[in-house]
Design brief:
Order of helices and strands: HHHHEEEEEHHH
Number of strands: 5
Strand content: 25-35%
Number of helices: 7
Distance between the termini: 39 Å
């Protein structure tokens, strides 16, 4: 069990989603699961200075709403700032979407969520930090496995290479 606590401790220090206050709260919760000797050992593992949350309150709210929509099998609506690259500048075009969220994925600190939409063919994905005005609708979400025609749909297989492609663009 101590090894599990160590793993979570290290993850708390490596992440940049939560503010320092939340990280300290979670660290105290972890410490409550181990002995005094293990606490002393654990506290010496990693020391992080100048912790700054890289994710806004809006990002965290978006994350929570998407999770809630996935678990309740409801569609979400939101405004998305699509990046449009031109020769002279990068500008943003905002568009409103209504989609069936499938799953949230994180790669190299970037959070995506995969979804189905009537406007976009097939399974698609957006950055969570570019979403505005997100809301859960009353509409039932479409199950991605229905679209794929495969009850054993494998997101790892689908997304292989996807994140490498996007890391070059953004």
């Amino acid at each position: 069990a101590y090894e599990d606590v160590e793993a979570f401790w290290d993850m708390l220090h490596a992440q940049n989603i939560f503010e320092e206050e939340k990280v300290n709260y979670l660290k105290r919760k972890l410490e409550s699961c181990i002995s005094l000797h293990e606490k002393k050992k654990l506290r010496g593992r990693i020391y992080t200075t100048d912790r700054v949350s890289m994710k806004s309150d809006n990002f965290k709210r978006n994350l929570d709403v998407i999770h809630d929509a996935v678990s309740s099998k409801k569609k979400i609506s939101f405004i998305y700032a699509d990046p449009i690259l031109t020769f002279e500048e990068t500008r943003k075009k905002k568009h409103t979407y209504v989609v069936s969220p499938y799953v949230i994925s994180c790669n190299d600190g970037r959070f995506f969520f995969f979804f189905l939409s009537e406007e976009i063919e097939g399974l698609s994905h957006f950055y969570i930090d570019r979403i505005e005005n997100i809301q859960i609708t009353k509409q039932h979400a479409t199950d991605v496995r229905e679209l794929a025609g495969d009850l054993d749909f494998d997101l790892n297989c689908y997304s292989k290479g996807l994140f490498d492609e996007y890391s070059k663009v953004t």
